[in-house]
Amino acid sequence: MRLVLVALISLAATPAFANALTFMGELNGGFIQVELTEPVHGAVAGRFTYDTDGADVPLRPVSVEGNVWTLAEEAPCSEGTCIAGDDGTVAEPPIAATWQVTYDPVSYVAQVVRTPAGKAKPQNFEMFVLAWRKFADQPTAFDLHDRTARLSYDETLPLDWKHAPYEMQLLDHDLAGGEQFETNGVPWTYVTEPLSGLTFPRILTVDGVFEGLGPILNAHFFRMSLSALDCKGFRYASYGMSENFLGQGGHTAGFEDEQVTLSYVSPTLASWSQSGSLYCNGAHPYNHLDNYTLDARTGEALDWRQVFSAIVPRPWFSPPEEIADVATALADPDNYDWGPSLDLIGYVRAHTPADLFEGDAELAEICFSDQAIAEQLNFRVVENADIMFTLSGFPHVSSVCNADLFSASLTDLAPFLAATAKDYFPETAD
């Protein structure tokens, strides 16, 4: 845990403007973390969670009198307690307790009186500011939780101690790995995040420091775990729950059963597959076989055009033979999709096992037509730097099409490689 370290860093300067404060404290015999907004716009909203659970609990604003802030802690929705109006919102969510927070901005310490609903005895506890982040507009309890949800998928939002201290503290566990491996000189293992149940590869530290792809891989791990915790918190009216959704949410969405397999790692690339069935709420689960390859040079997903020259642009949903001018596509990237050339499509068809679709002509047409290959072909790197050709990203109704096709060596793929492939695979330089 980084409580002392982050507190010292954060207290080096007095908070300015509007801040969301992350507190640490102890309640009901367990450690909690709390995020509260400063009342610069006349209200204080918040959330909290137990560090052994990770699911947000909304704290709704009630009143502000100087440094004394009163908030209502919501109770989870249950049958008859969260009746939605015509607009889909719950006007009177159930209340579990009232919090009276007396905050001292000089010592960064708050005294809290939590009074449970009913006749239970009030609970008194203290909490201290661990860190803070800035906000522009006064957030609601929903906004605070929704920001965590956005962090789970929006990679333009920084996931670090400066911009997301609540989330970083939530995920700051000393995780013991299992069997240790070394691939291309990179040591790694699998670790399991205890709050989400997700098992994910982690590059091991060198002298206590994550190097190269380590922090980038960790960020993917953290964002996936936040997605699981977003679903785990979907029990409250402030987060969109109502009687219309009872029985959904309140769990980790299946991330604990997600199969993540690191197939290749080097100082320049990390490649892995993810498969499973994820579901929190909505019409259907997300059944998937996804491939990811990270580029250490950019810190982002590998642009496979750097490996294959046979990746060409097409207007979205156009026939495979309708290949666009490269310069035109680069100037208007949102209107073009990049996929395999006709020659590479032919190579895929020639090398995919004939019995892949077991003689099912209808399934083969959906999954393995030239159109399907042009739009859904994907890759990942596997052992010996071979390239696995896969089909992935099909919608739910045709998710059965998601499958590995075959692997091929870089030598066999030489006619399709770009000159820049050697930057990732030096063995292709010759």
Brief write-up:
With 430 residues, this protein is of the alpha+beta class. Helix content is 17%, strand content 32%. The strands form five sheets. The protein has an eight-stranded antiparallel beta barrel with strand order 1-2-3-4-5-6-7-8. A four-stranded antiparallel sheet has the order 12-13-14-15, with no helix packed on it. A three-stranded antiparallel sheet has the order 9-10-11.
Lay out the secondary structure.
Elements: H1 3-10, E1 19-27, E2 30-37, E3 46-50, E4 57-65, E5 68-74, E6 95-104, E7 109-116, E8 123-134, H2 141-151, H3 165-170, E9 181-183, E10 186-192, E11 199-203, H4 214-232, E12 259-265, E13 269-278, E14 286-295, E15 300-301, E16 311-315, H5 326-331, E17 336-340, H6 342-351, H7 361-368, H8 370-376, E18 377-381, E19 387-391, E20 403-408
**What's the overall average pLDDT, rounded?**
91
Q: CATH top level of one domain?
A: Mainly Beta
> Could you estimate the helical fraction of the residues in percent?
10-25%
Query: Could you name the ranges where pLDDT drops below 50 across 5 or more consecutive residues?
Result: 1-16
**Tally of separate helices:** 8
Give a quick account of the main beta sheet: strands, pairing sense, barrel closure.
8 strands, antiparallel, barrel
